[in-house]
Amino acid sequence: MSEETKPQDAPAAAEDMTEAQAEPGDSLDAALEALRNDLETARQDVLYAKAETQNVRRRLEKDIADARAYAATAFARDILSVADNLSRALEAIPAELRADDKMKNLVAGLEATGREIEKVFASHGITRIAALGLPLDPNQHQAMIEMPSAEAEPGTVLQELQAGYMIKDRLLRPAMVAVARKPD
């Protein structure tokens, strides 16, 4: 017998074959495990991407809604000065001229224009800020002067110098007011 075919070498050869067979199986298991890990990582990445896309979509929808709701803000601020001037003009007309037949139609036209401006403001969510008799709210009122008052609590709005307005839930222009303070 040759040395290659000795019976004592048969178990060693079987071990070599088992190791040779085990190595490809182990490498397949390792490769399969690596693929499973890669698949799980890819799934997580897809979930994160979907969540981020959904968040971006929500932000864009909110931005679009805000743009629609507040698009007229700059224009509304400009029109407020027109409304203020119209109100001042109406207040400046003395009572005797209001009763005059020649001026009656002019006053009626100015009043109708004022009502129309208020109607347009309301249709666009522009509302007047309440001020008189209320405590000063720095989020809506701008104190221009302090007036001594024994009747009103300090910090109470006594006079509205210029009307303030909101557009939906945002401040368009603060009300300029005079507030009470303790008398000297």
Head-to-tail CA distance between termini: 130 Å
Write the H/E string, N to C: HHHHEEEEEE
Total of domains:
3
Total number of strands: 6
Estimated structural class: alpha+beta
- Number of H- or I-type helical stretches: 4
Strand percentage lies at 15-25%
Name the poorly predicted regions. Answer: 1-7, 10-20
Biggest sheet architecture? 3 strands, antiparallel
Q: Helical amount among residues, as a percent range?
A: 55-70%
**What value does the average pLDDT take?**
83
Lateral arrangement of strands in the main beta sheet: 1-4-5
Global morphology: elongated
Give Rg in angstroms: 41 Å
Task: Using brief descriptors, characterize the structure shown.
184 residues, alpha+beta, Nucleotide Exchange Factor Grpe, Chain A, domain 2, 3 domains, three-stranded antiparallel β-sheet, three-stranded mixed β-sheet, elongated, unfolded protein binding, chaperone, Protein GrpE, adenyl-nucleotide exchange factor activity
What does this structure look like?
Residues 1-7 and 10-20 have low confidence and may be disordered. Helix 2 packs antiparallel against helix 4 (101-123). Helices cover 60% and strands 17% of the residues. The relative contact order is 0.09. It starts with 8 loop residues before the first helix and ends with a strand. It has three domains: 9-69; 72-124; 126-184, Head domain of nucleotide exchange factor GrpE (Nucleotide Exchange Factor Grpe, Chain A, domain 2), CATH 2.30.22.10. The protein is an alpha+beta fold and 184 residues long. It has helices spanning 9-70, 73-92, 95-99, 101-123; strands at 126-128, 141-148, 157-162, 165-167, 170-173, 175-181. The chain has a three-stranded antiparallel β-sheet. Strands 2-6-3 form a three-stranded mixed β-sheet, with no helix packed on it. The longest helix has 62 residues, at 9-70.
